[in-house]
Amino acid sequence: PAVYISQDFELWEVLSGCEMQNRYKVFASDVAEPTRLGEPIFKAKEKSGCLERQCCGPARSFEMQIFTTDPAQTQFMTLKRPFKCTCLCFNRSIIYTQSAAGEDLGEIYNPFQCFDHIMEVKAPKSREGVNPLPIIAAEGKSGDWYTVEAACCQPGFFCHCPCGPCKEIVWNIYPAGGSKDTPVGRIAKVWNGCCKTAFTDADAFHIVFPPDATPYQKANLVSAAFLLDFLLFEKNAQNNNSGAG
Q1: In sequence order, what are the beta bridge partners of 27?
Q2: pTM for the structure as a whole
Q3: How many Å apart are CA 150 and CA 245, to the nearest integer?
Q4: Per-residue pLDDT tens over the stretch 161-198
Q5: Which phi and psi (to 5°) does residue 56 adopt?
Q6: Which of 119, 139, 74 is nearest to 230 (CA)?
Q7: CB of 205 within 8 A of CB of 221?
Q8: How far apart are CA 42 and CA 219, in angstroms?
Q9: Alpha-carbon distance 11 to 112, whole Å?
Q10: Are 58 and 81 in contact (CB under 8 A)?
Q11: Which of 4, 100, 121, 187 could be disulfide-bonded to 171 (CB atoms 3.0-4.6 Å)?
Q12: Sequence-separated (6 or more) residues with CB below 8 Å from residue 237
């Protein structure tokens, strides 16, 4: 199973230079052919303050509201990211995945690394004012789930174009604490078209889920892709390096 995440093109952002709230569509996708899309599964819309978007750029806090694609457009999940002014190993970024009822489904943490880009996908923990979804612990899925890791020397980081190794940037998904010989899945930033790449910061990601991933773990891997987009590819002239070490 795989999904394709496509960020919407924001014309006003291109014309005005003002950072707008990000919007995404998520489609079912082929494992081997990312652009062979199926039906849309859900859509996501950022909710954040205008002043914070312009001044804080990729470090900003936001809620990512997840809706169904049917006419009712029911919100069934929320991703919450607090503001993080990151400096090396201090105050690293985190994002929480929550159900519509406000129960934590998991969290994504960005630890400090000198070179490679790493995300830790974890089961929810009890924190002030928020409870984890009970069924996750009942299923024995507590603790760390996955490590999502990309080598910093991939050509796509330096020259993103539609040919050869430059057309994608790959984060391999490994079981947390397990062997890194064989990845169990992947998140890839893929080529999103000449116009979008040249004139906007609208990105596209392809996620191949681990075969045994639960729905909650899949939801958190989608959250990891959103956090990667903000940390590494959200352009802002005042803050173009917000600490995704």
Answers
A1: 4, 40
A2: 0.89
A3: 11
A4: 888 888 899 999 999 988 888 999 999 999 876 666 65
A5: -105, -15
A6: 119
A7: no
A8: 12
A9: 35
A10: no
A11: 187
A12: none
